[in-house]
Every structure is written in structure tokens, then in C-alpha cells.
Here is the input.
Amino acid sequence: MPSIVSRLRCSILLRVGLLPEATRTAWAWELVSGACAGVYTGSVWTFAGRIARADMHATGVQMGWFAAAPAVGYVFATVWARQMEGRSKLPFVYWTWLIARGLFILTPAIRTRDQYILLVCITPIIFSISSPAYTAVMKDIYPDAYRGRLMSAVRIVLNVVTFGSALIVGRLLDAGVDWRTVFCGGGVFGALSAWAFSRIRPVAMDEPVEAISTRAFVLDTFAILKRNPAYRWFTASVFVYGFGNLIAATLYPVYQVDRFHITNTEVANLQNVGAVSTIVGFFFWGSFMDRRGPLATVFLSIVIICAMPIVYACAPSVEYLRWAAAAGGIALSGIELGYLNTTLFFSEPGRAAQYQALHSSLFGIRGSIAPHVAIPLMERFGAQRTFWIAEVIMLVGLLLQVASMNGYRRRASMDGEDVPV
Here is the structure.
């Protein structure tokens, strides 16, 4: 075993040594940022839904807002992208991460349910501003040939630390430690993750761009769907699948509390199963995407995540939800890499942030609507039948992606292009 570990270590060091010095430095700082973000995520967001429903007694409507909040800010992604045009993207990432994550330092002051819901809703909205800028930074600091593996390594570190944090914090909460204290500590590490990311120095700078109004920029961004038919079909498939997935995801924490009366330790156990499978997923998806391309990565990931609503609909006890957590971890790691790199794959030179803004805006639209569809469906048909409804919608989106991939292959073959799907 020591010889295997030694050979693996030497192989990693050799490959890292082949990278340009600027890339190595940027990667090192992103690894530090990812580790700090892991403490933040494991301490705060692992338990935010359970605390909202079980401890703060959030209503169904409030849980809908809690689920929709990460998407609401993305509705305005094209506006954020316009403000970033022709400017350095890194400060947009730094300040939004610092504010969004650092706000949890204020949790000891929270006393009411409404205050809590406001905090967990406003922070992801602020965080969403960074999305177009983050995509552009990733394109600047990592070469195309290595981006999948380097980003995978960062996310492996993030999820390993999330695993450890959730494991410890879940038991501390069940032992009587106040969640406000835990969230405050998580907020400190969240702020540190922003500081570490700010140490990155992108190797490419934006060229000056033509000054246009925000309205013209937004219209031009949505016109991408007309100009780029391959991206249009990909976007349609993601929108439909994602709508179904968000319906199901809205109900997961509600169902865990209402059906299984889940404890903080059990929430941590689910999180850790997901974290381990996410780590395994990043080991696989990074090299898979570099070999097969981002479209194939997204397709296979969606196939896997379609298992989650089925498991929830059929689970007789909370232990069975670990299978859903495992499937979700593996799939979401592939989707995270695949979505961003599909955006880079389809985008024209210099327009990565604009493409990401379009992708994020459409996520914001479906993410703002789906949770408020999920709660009425649950009240009308029950949670289990709603999971099956979500599953059907997800499968329709998957079929659309098959059609879009086949159409893209045909068009690319007629143009004599190499098709990495």
C-alpha cells in the first residue's frame, strides 16, 4: 500500500509540475478557498433546511422560498454580467462571496423565524451575482486540457472538508450546541474562502468592449438562443429536466422532517454519504469529461440523478435515503463540471460570462417557479405522488437532451468538426 500511495503522489506532483507557474499558484489558492468553503458548507447549509423546518417551524410557503432563493438571484444574471463587461471579474467574485458567506457571522443576533428565513434566502441571492464572473475566471486561469481535472481536485478538497465538518457539527447540534454559534463559525470560514480566492491572479485580461445599454446587452444575451441552435436545444433539455429536479428537491427536506422526523445526526449522515460519493464522482468526472466532453458528462449525470425521486417515493425508512444521497452526490459532481464546461464549449471567444449569464438566468426562472409549484402539488397529491410527477418531467428533459445531442452530432459532422460527445 505505501508503494501505491508513493507512486500516486509522485504522479500527481509530476503532472502539477508540468503546469505553468501562474496556473499552479492559482490552483493552490483555489484549493485553500475550497477547503474554507467546505467548513462553511458543512457547518451551515448541511443543516439549514432541517433547522428551518424542525427548529424554526417554517411554513410550507417559507420552505418554498427557502428552496427558491438560490435561483432568484440568477434571474438577473444577465444584468450582473453586463456590469462585469470590460472589467476584472475577480473582484465581483470576492465581494459577493465575502458578503454572502460572511453574513452568517451575524446569526447570534437571530431570534425569530422570519429573521432566519430572511438570512437563508438573502445570502444565496447575493452569492448568485458571482456566477458569470466565476466562469470567466475559470476560463482565464486554467488551460482547456487540464480544467476538468484541476476543478475536480478543488471540489474533492471542498467535499472532504464538508464531510468532516458535517460529521462533527451534526453531533454537536444534537448534543445541545446552539446552531447560532455553529453558523457564526461557519460564516468566519466562508469569509476566509473569499479572501483566499481573492489571492488568485488571472493570467488573461478582458479586452475593451463596445459600450451598450443594459437593455441591449440583455436582449443580445437571450438572442444567443436564436444564433446558436446547438446551445438552444441543450438549454431546453436542461430547463425541462431542471424544473422536475427542483420540484423534487424542494420536497426533500420537508419530507425528511414530516415523514421520518430526521435528526441533525441523520442529516449529517446523509450529507456525508453524498460528500463521499461526490468525491468519488469528481475523481471520475474530471478525466471522463477531458476524454468524452462536457455534453456526455451532463447526459450521464442526469441519468444517475433521475434515481433520486424514485428512492424518496419508495423509501420505507430514512436509511434508504442514503441511496438517493449517493446518487445525488455522484450526479451533481458531474453536473457541476459539465454545466460550466458546456457553457465554455458552446461560447464564442470572449463571451463566456455572457453565456454563463444566460444559463444562470434560465436557472433562476425555473428555480423561482418550481418550488412554488412543488408545495401545492404536495398538498394536492401528497409528497410521494409529487416525486413521481417530478420524475416524469426529468425524463422528458433527458429525452430532449438525447435529441439535442444527436442533432448536434449531425450538424458537426456535416461541417467536418470533431465532436467530443
